[in-house]
Design a protein that fits this description.
With 135 residues, the protein is mainly alpha-helical. The protein is built from six helices and four strands. The strands form two sheets. The protein has a two-stranded antiparallel sheet. The chain has a two-stranded antiparallel ribbon with strand order 2-3.
Length: 135
Amino acid sequence: MTKSDLLFLVVLLTLPIQLGKHFFFSYSYIFGLPIDYRALTIYASDIAIVAYLTFFLFENRKKLKSFFKAYRQPALAIAGLDFYLLAQSLIFASPARLFSASRQHYSAFLRFVPPTLYLKNPLAVPLSSCLKLLL
């Protein structure tokens, strides 16, 4: 069992727990009371997901290089769309919603990318077709 496989199990175990650390900044208080949904929160599942992705990408870098060489255009289109959505959430989100907005975009990206890495014939569709599916 590789480190990334073990960390994937840790991710599955930490998802339902919702163990997190709240950071209360000045915008988190209303009439002197700390409001938890306005506070920046880092969850144990966030740390586990970042660790899993780091180890997974490091262990499979040769497979990923060959994948991106074979399917460069669709991979760049998907990555570009993801970074565009992330940039939009970082630019236009209020500080209280900043972390939750970027987390939603990352989770949407993570739901799509890992299945495409294991397909024998990934869908090589142009960007316009991807956008039609999303809209």
